[in-house]
Design brief:
Chain B: InterPro entries: ABC_transp_permease, LivM-like. Chain B: It is a multi-pass membrane protein. The structure holds 3 protein chains of 3 kinds. By secondary structure, chain A is mostly helical. Chain A has helices at 2-29, 36-53, 58-79, 89-111, 135-157, 159-169, 171-176, 181-206, 213-227, 233-250, 259-273; strands at 126-128, 131-133. Chain A has one domain: Orthogonal Bundle (ABC transporter involved in vitamin B12 uptake, BtuC). In chain A, helix 2 crosses helix 9 and helix 6 (159-169) crosses helix 8. The radius of gyration of chain A is 18 Å and the shape is globular. Chain C is α/β, with parallel strands linked by helices. Chain C contains 9 helices and 10 strands. In chain C, the strands form 2 sheets. A 6-stranded mixed beta sheet of chain C has the order 6-7-8-3-9-10, sandwiched between helices. Bound molecules: adenosine-5'-diphosphate and magnesium ion (MG). Magnesium ion (MG) is lined by residues 46-47, 89 of chain C.
């Protein structure tokens, strides 16, 4: 039981970062970014390249990967989404699918299809009261908690954080209050890309690095964000933890390859019963 | 040369059907179906399994596949049909992934990763093996013609205008006393029926299906066809689908001429091109190259 | 609070949506430290006028001056920095943020003139709106309409603007709250702020104002001192139910 908890927590923590990233960009830009999975993948591969090809320490490589994807996300916005701000969310959605396909295949082009892993020293798992916790899980726990606390502090207590929440809350009023939307959007993309890349690094640490890794996480990421009510970034974190647990518990009576189906069933049930999310209050939906 | 042409034409027809289905759902109805490949796969598997496991007549199997895919499409769309359209995209995608997983792992029913082989084509007993491809292409083209005519009629009918009006402003349609839900449900189901048909033809054409044949790339190509052809324009999508398949098929030969280019690299390059083109077209030519019939008179149809 | 108010002058404003003019040559002056109220039937272009003053709509023709400075080419956020505060008709707060955060956002991205410590300015503004003082850590979306209006006005006042523009501040308020609101508006004017407001409550709005402007179909039908307009029989017939 305790082991289940630890594994569920790990799954949930990994999901928390991209779910937060997705909800963040949705809250400010009002469109669901399907390319989030490919940001995860690109982050993992850039980190792998810095770690293995350049032989840099793992944590340095992870920072390089995150910064690279943060810049990538900002550039893609400047190249693609910025020209479509006035279009409907659906058109942006389809455009983000195009971005996802292109990015994933750029990765395939350079890295091929075979799975890889990071160059990190292997350590023996530790035992706390009969529960096995391996080094990777500890790294995941510390990294995710660190990142979440940092984001939360920025959100809560800085001018920039207020600006992001203000644009998400009421974009028209934000512009009247002197907030330059374009700059906020750039920051949001940088944050969204950086967090997704970090998640890619952690997934690579937990399992392996392959071109479709982000794709495999797409459905759980969306489910976690919807659990939180899609437009509330911090609730998405809670959604991720709930989903992580649910997936882990489901392995008690379902084969592990059906985790995706668990995510889908949870999402479907939620959309039919509580589309405003597990924690949120009801908001007006068309 | 002739066999090659027939083979390409078969692919074109199947692909065009998928494009037309998406054009109905997304182009005319505003319903983003990212899980298109899943419904296509469902059609192929229902048809293939009915023929191989239960020995049904291929035409009967195809009919059942079409009906079932339509019904399941309707059910899936029900999950998020009350919500804003963004949700349908992820719901359909999730459904498609689940279908693929289910088919890959439930060998007792689907033969799993081994695939379903020996799917006999319609009229297999009537034509000799050497004319089988020709008979197939005639069947496929007839099916495409029927679908095309039906879609043109739908597009020109009051229901077609209602669909476009729902896409452009569901609130207005709702306020005129029309059920947005029913309109969406019907258009998604009709699109599902066409995907079921396309999947069945896929199963007949190859005679063998396995899960690796059905990937999100099918979805990407269908979106490409609709974006190039012009959302809502059936003739545009028809033409775009033809052109696209010939370009994509034609690019296969590049491997023979460009040194150092292997199949995997080419596949990646091709998809990079598809993704990029999709984005570029949405930015610079959002209406595509075809033209949707005008909706100016939509209001007058809504009232009666 | 010793801000010197600035006057607002518009000359020959032609503006609208998508090339279709709603305003057809509107001119007026709100003198420094005065309250100017625009009245007129629904759809006459009042909100369009205030949005043009704010820079949310670009005029096709005409100029807008703040004192001597031509602000016509400035963007909304530049105008905010030039000293114009604005409270829109609807969606006037950030509903998922606390009242204090709403007030902080009033100054976060606007240069304050003269630069004052946040805490000091907050005290001054809360003295004007004592009702919101106990609500500082409440989410703005949970407040009543009247309280939200006060938060919105307080937030617009935080950077000490020269001009405060309010779009139908009394809409949806009870008569008692509306009267309270106009008392506050008069006090704000006395602190050295020019007020440019839109009202559908003609009697209350003009009653508290120095100058009035009647806008009908995008044209100024009548302008003058507020009491003259209130006393005008045609206006009484049009808006005050013949009373
Ligand atoms: N966003 C908009 N787009 C197009 N027309 C608008 C828009 N907002 C208002 N209008 C039109 O402009 C005219 C004036 O509206 P408005 O300025 O809001 O009037 P008021 O505030 O006096 O009621 C109306 O005829 C209205 O239909
Ligand atoms: Mg108005």
């Amino acid at each position: 039981m305790g082991q289940l908890l630890v594994n569920g927590l790990t799954t949930g923590l990994i999901l928390a970062l991209p779910a937060l990233a997705l909800a963040l960009s949705f809250s400010v830009l009002r469109f669901a970014n399907y390319a989030i999975g490919s940001y995860v993948t690109v982050g993992a591969f850039v980190t792998w390249w810095a770690n293995v090809a350049l032989a840099l320490p793992f944590w340095v490589a992870a920072i390089i990967g995150s910064v690279a994807v943060a810049s990538l996300a900002v550039s893609i916005d400047a190249l693609v989404y910025r020209h479509m701000r006035e279009r409907s969310g659906l058109t942006l959605l389809v455009a983000s699918m195009g971005v996802a396909i292109a990015l994933e295949n750029v990765v395939r082009l350079f890295a091929g299809n075979s799975p890889r892993s990071f160059d990190v020293p292997v350590a023996r798992p530790q035992r706390f009261f009969d529960i096995r916790v391996n080094q990777e899980q500890l790294i995941i726990l510390i990294t995710v908690l660190g990142a979440l606390i940092l984001v939360w502090l920025v959100f809560r207590f800085t001018r920039l954080g207020r600006a992001m929440r203000a644009v998400a809350d009421n974009a028209a009023l934000a512009s009247v209050r002197g907030i330059a939307r374009g700059r906020v959007i750039a920051v949001v993309w940088a944050l969204s890309g950086g967090l997704s890349a970090l998640a890619g690094v952690l997934i690579g640490l937990d399992t392996s690095i392959e071109p479709q890794m982000g794709w495999n996480y797409l459905l759980p990421i969306f489910t976690a964000a919807i659990l939180g009510g899609i437009a509330s970034p911090m609730a998405a974190v809670a959604g991720a933890l709930v989903l992580g647990m649910a997936e882990e518990v489901s392995t008690l009576f379902l084969p592990p390859h059906y985790r995706m189906i668990v995510a889908f069933v949870i999402m479907a049930a939620l959309l039919m019963l509580r589309p405003w999310g597990l924690f949120g209050t009801k908001w007006v939906q068309r | 040369m002739i066999p090659y042409l027939i083979a390409t034409l078969s692919v074109v027809v199947i692909f065009t059907l998928a494009g037309l289905a998406l054009n109905l759902q997304w182009g005319m109805g505003g319903l983003v179906n990212f899980g298109l490949f899943g419904f296509y796969m469902l059609g192929a598997y229902i048809c293939g399994l009915l023929v191989v496991r239960w020995g049904l007549n291929p035409l009967v199997a195809m009919t059942l596949a079409i009906l079932t895919t339509a019904a399941i499409s309707a059910l899936v769309s029900l999950i998020s049909i009350r919500l804003s359209e963004d949700y349908l995209a992820i719901v359909t995608l999730g459904f498609a992934e689940c279908i693929r997983l289910f088919i890959s792992y439930e060998d007792w029913l689907t033969f799993g990763t081994l695939g379903v082989s020996g799917i006999t084509r319609p009229f297999a007993g009537l034509v000799s093996a050497q004319w089988s491809d020709l008979a197939f292409i005639i069947l496929a083209i007839s099916a495409l013609c029927v679908v095309y005519v039906v879609l043109s009629l739908v597009s020109a009918s009051p229901f077609g205008r209602l669909m476009r009006a729902t896409r452009d402003d569901p609130d207005i349609v709702g306020s005129l006393g029309r059920s947005v839900l029913t309109i969406r449900l019907r258009s998604f189901a009709l699109g599902g029926a066409i995907l079921g048909l396309a999947g069945s033809l896929h199963a007949f054409y190859y005679g063998y299906i396995d899960p690796t044949q059905f990937t999100p790339i099918i979805t990407a190509y269908a979106f490409m066809a609709v974006v190039v052809g012009g959302r809502g324009s059936n003739p545009g999508v028809l033409l775009a689908a033809f052109v696209l398949v010939f370009v994509l098929e034609g690019s296969r030969f590049l491997v023979d001429y460009v040194p150092g280019l292997d199949g995997a690299t080419l596949a990646s390059l091709r998809l990079i091109a598809v993704g990029t083109a999709l984005v570029v077209l949405l930015i610079i030519k959002p209406a595509g190259f075809g033209r949707e019939r005008p909706t100016v008179r939509a209001g007058s149809d809504l009232k009666n | 609070m010793s801000v010197t108010a600035k006057s607002l002058t518009a000359t020959g404003l032609v503006a609208g949506y998508g090339g279709q003019p709603v305003l057809r040559g509107v001119s007026f002056t709100a003198h420094a430290g005065e309250i100017l109220t625009v009245v007129g039937p629904n759809g006459s272009g009042k909100s369009t006028l205030i949005k043009t003053v704010l820079g949310l709509i670009r005029p096709i023709e005409g100029r807008i001056l703040l004192d001597e400075e031509d602000i016509t080419p400035l963007s909304p956020s530049q105008r905010a920095n030039a000293g114009i505060g604005y409270v829109p008709q609807e969606a006037n707060v950030f509903p998922n943020m606390t009242v204090l955060e709403n007030l902080r956002l009033g100054v976060d991205f606007i240069q304050q003139r003269p630069a004052k410590r946040f805490d000091r300015r907050l005290e001054e503004v809360l003295d004007l709106f004592p009702e919101i003082r106990p609500k500082l850590s409440t989410r703005a979306g949970l407040l009543s309409g009247g309280q939200r209006q006060m938060v919105a006005m307080a937030s617009a006042l935080m950077p000490e603007p020269f001009l405060l523009a309010l779009d139908e501040p009394s809409a949806g308020l009870s008569p008692r709250n509306a009267e309270l609101l106009f008392k506050i508006i008069s006090r704000i004017a006395r602190t050295g702020v020019t007020l440019f407001l839109i009202e559908q409550n003609t009697r209350l709005g003009l009653g508290a104002s120095d100058t009035g402007l009647v806008l009908v179909s995008g044209e100024v039908k009548l302008s003058g001192t507020a009491s003259d307009i209130l006393g005008n029989p045609a206006i009484r017939r049009l808006y005050l139910g013949g009373a």
